[in-house]
């Protein structure tokens, strides 16, 4: 039975990225009412940043050439490493159990929130493959950063996530949905672009629905 891991990273409790993520999750869960579902709010319940003990675990995984994540616990030795592993283990279990990982995030200062990066760092080890897992990224951006726009080159949120999931985890299915110009709702300088934001949101919602329907068919 397929499982969904749903991550929220926005500092706002009523953010647009949360709204889009919930839209996907609601449709997926309606189609799989008995399937495993885990929602982790990385802003409300932050994952700690990695420390030196985590780096020791990472080094030992490399030394032993371990490629199976479920064997990583074998490298734990010192009390500090046990404490580090106590943080990693439940996060890694949730990730490995998921067939679909939904990442709902804003773009902050051209990149992903620190809360999301902290989660990524905790669950990532050398030569770790998640091939076969599907990643859905839904993102809200304050300005316009889509390909072909003047600021496209500084969009380091969805491009980073796509490149990382593909390049490190060997994931071939990474779908990205982004709503643009969210700041037009609050910034007077962008007020004349509110119609663009609204069109972008409508398109994002339609794409979320399409991806959710596709996930149901694939399952």
Automatic annotation (TrEMBL):
Q: Which reaction does it catalyse?
A: N,N-dimethyl-1,4-phenylenediamine + anthranilate + 2 NAD(+) = 2-(4-dimethylaminophenyl)diazenylbenzoate + 2 NADH + 2 H(+); 2 a quinone + NADH + H(+) = 2 a 1,4-benzosemiquinone + NAD(+)
Q: What's the cofactor?
A: FMN
UniProt cross-references to Gene3D superfamilies, sorted A to Z:
3.40.50.360
UniProt entry keywords in alphabetical sequence: Flavoprotein, FMN, NAD, Oxidoreductase
Annotated FMN binding sites: 10, 15-17, 107-110
Q: What is its EC number?
A: 1.6.5.-, 1.7.1.17
The residue ranges of the Flavodoxin-like fold domain are: 4-197
User: Keyword Transmembrane: yes or no?
Assistant: no
Q: How is the cofactor bound?
A: Binds 1 FMN per subunit.
| Pfam families xrefs | Flavodoxin_2 (PF02525)
Q: State the function annotated in the UniProt record.
A: Also exhibits azoreductase activity. Catalyzes the reductive cleavage of the azo bond in aromatic azo compounds to the corresponding amines. Quinone reductase that provides resistance to thiol-specific stress caused by electrophilic quinones.
Binding partners and assembly? Homodimer.
Q: Which family does the UniProt entry place this protein in? A: Belongs to the azoreductase type 1 family.
In its UniProt entry, what is this protein called?
Answer: FMN dependent NADH:quinone oxidoreductase
């Amino acid at each position: 039975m397929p499982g969904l891991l749903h991550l929220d990273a926005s500092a706002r409790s009523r953010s647009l990225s949360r709204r889009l993520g919930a839209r996907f999750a609601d449709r997926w869960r309606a189609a799989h009412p008995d399937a495993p579902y885990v929602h982790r709010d990385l802003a409300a319940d932050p994952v700690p940043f990695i420390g030196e003990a985590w780096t020791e675990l990472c080094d030992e995984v490399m030394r032993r050439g371990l490629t199976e994540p479920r064997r990583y616990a074998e490298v734990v030795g010192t009390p500090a490493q046990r404490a580090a592993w106590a943080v990693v283990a439940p996060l890694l279990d949730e990730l490995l159990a998921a067939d679909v990982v939904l990442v709902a995030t804003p773009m902050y200062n051209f990149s992903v929130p620190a809360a999301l990066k902290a989660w990524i760092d905790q669950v990532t080890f050398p030569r770790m493959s998640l091939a076969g897992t599907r990643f859905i990224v839904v993102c809200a951006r304050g300005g316009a950063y889509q390909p072909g726009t003047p600021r496209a080159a500084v969009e380091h949120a969805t491009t980073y996530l796509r490149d990382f999931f593909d390049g490190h985890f060997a994931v071939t299915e990474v779908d990205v949905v982004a709503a643009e110009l969210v700041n037009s709702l609050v910034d007077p300088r962008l007020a004349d672009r509110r119609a663009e934001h609204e069109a972008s949101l409508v398109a994002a919602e339609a794409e979320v629905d399409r991806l959710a329907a596709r996930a149901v068919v694939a399952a």
